[in-house]
Amino acid sequence: MLGIRRMIAGAFAILAIGVGVVSYMRRDRTSVAQTLAIASPSSSTAAASDPAPPPPPPRKPWRASVRVPLDSGNPREAFWQMDYEEPLIEPDLEARPVTVLLHGMCADSSWTCEWLQYFEMAPQWQICPRAPSKCGGQAGYRWTSAADTLRVVELAIATARTLHGARMKDGPIVLGGMSQGAYAIAALAHLLANQASPSLRVKGIVLQGAEARISVADARRLGARIAFTAGDRDGAAPAMRAAAADLRRAGIDARWQSMGKEEGHFSSVSTGKTMAELVDWARGE
User: Fold this and answer.
1) Whole-angstrom Cα distance, residue 88 to residue 74?
2) How many CA atoms does the CB half-sphere of 221 hold within 13 Å?
3) Does residue 255 contact residue 280 with C-beta atoms inside 8 Å?
4) What is the β-pairing status of strands 173-178 and 98-102?
5) Rounded to 5 degrees, what angle do the CA atoms 127, 70, 174 make?
6) What confidence category does residue 31 fall into, taking pLDDT thresholds of 50, 70 and 90?
7) Do 128 and 65 meet the contact criterion of CB atoms below 8 Å apart?
8) DSSP-based three-state secondary structure for 132
9) pLDDT exceeds cutoff 80 at 178
């Protein structure tokens, strides 16, 4: 009987020691956790206050351009107009940059903005004014002097700002021109580069399908990137490739990009992908 009592007493002693050890370990872990919390009081708060960033707004696959008249105040210029396209995302709560695109000779503004929207581009406003002079006996409109080009581009941007205000960035723009529109852009760039206080700030220029050149001096004064593009079968392609190389040798950020080996002057819709890429490149995006 005495042996049994000693065994029971020993068991209770071992149990008591075990409970004490567990209790100590729990207190020790608690104190360590409290010490860590004191050492870095903001860690749990920071984790709780940094929610995951919201997903970007969805990109619309297509949006019809909007046509509006341009009121120059001159009855002889009552045919002045522009098409424009909003950024292809919705909802869009940020101010977005502006790209101005000029159409070719005896063409119109109706298709110019819609040409690029099938391809990936950074969110931006596309403004496509109609050229300021009629083509005479045939349909369409043509670009004339740099002064008139400046007038119509400034009026188009001002009209869009009247309609959409703070949704459009008040910053440097990208200018793009196709065929005769490219020559008009080159002449406009020269005019702006030689103004004491340029009325338009230009961040990038994209010229397509024309033996148009931007001088080194004009490029430096504007501080703009210059891109040249054409189909390989376009007669303007060799001169445009050479113009880009000349600017690069002078330290200007310029590039040439082919629209395709089988593309000529009248480019297919698919070549808009090249223009879209170059517009974003010219803006630095």
Assistant:
1) 34
2) 16
3) no
4) parallel
5) 25
6) very low
7) yes
8) coil
9) yes
